[in-house]
Amino acid sequence: MAISLSRLLLVLLLAGSAAAAFELEEATIDSIHLAFTLDPGGSLSTADRADAARVATVPGALPPLHGVPVLLKDNIAAAGALNATAGSLAMVGSRPARDAGVVERLRRAGAVILGTASLSEWCNFRGPGIPAGWSPRGGQGKNPYMPSVMPCASSSGSAIAEATNSVAVTIGTETDGSIMCPSSFNSVVGIKPTVGLTSRAGIIIISPRMDTVGPISRTVSDAVHVLEAIVGYDPRDAEATRLASKYIPEGGYKQFLSIDGLRGKRLGILRKDFFSFPSGSVQEKVFNQHFDVMR
């Protein structure tokens, strides 16, 4: 992590009878809505306001991400004490003057910004041969399921934080695979939105024609909650967001969440070069087990 999450102790104080059902280790957006969120770092005052609003507001009237802790990739600006460094020591100490467009939307949706997650320095654009997930500020990110396997691509810190249950949801950015690859390698859910659905204002990017901002989470449902909160027009990224805004579905994305969404669907498996394994190998056995579960 680019900031120490061990010093951003997140304590969830449970409300009433919800305590018995709440699981901290696998908390989701919906279950966090049943709890109070506190920490002793820079987000404490925000969490206090969220707690107070929860007590004073009619149930169901709170914003969609009320009290949900979010970790940002370290190329996304958040006004205040957090630095947006892209993993570079040259940027340590920088204080963004204002929030990135997606951070403004997250705050309006009620989210609590906890801190920033490590990444590949300069979004893996520092030079050839740099290990994925490494930066001088954060060190080498490790795949929590198998540390010897690379965490993959520049949003790896966001995916690692999600996989290790360090936070409820995280935000990543992608030019070419930087959300999807670490999500896949670290066994979490990532959504790469169409370019322009989410604002790049206040974000260190590589390409205005390719870069986009999206959620990384443990469940599809959580990712959709966050996606719905961060899409939309931003005058600071006007051309791209104006063009893409017309493709946001009326009624939002949550309407498409269905527990039976895969029922009746046919899935194709790209065996050659992707899911072909030596006969009798552990990889073949594990893949076939997962394939049977999906079936």
Automatic annotation (TrEMBL):
Q: Report if keyword Acyltransferase is assigned.
A: no
The residues the entry assigns to the signal sequence are 1-20
Stored Pfam families: Amidase (PF01425)
Q: Which UniProt keywords apply?
A: Signal
Signal recorded as keyword? yes
Entry superkingdom:
Eukaryota
Under the heading InterPro entries, the entry gives: Amidase_dom (IPR023631), AS_sf (IPR036928)
Gene3D superfamilies found in the cross-reference section: Amidase signature (AS) domain (3.90.1300.10)
Instruction: Cite the Amidase domain residue spans from the record.
Output: 29-286
Name of the featured protein: Amidase domain-containing protein
Organism expressing this protein natively: Eleusine coracana subsp. coracana
List the top taxonomic levels of the source: Eukaryota, Viridiplantae, Streptophyta, Embryophyta, Tracheophyta
Gene expressing this chain: gb07718
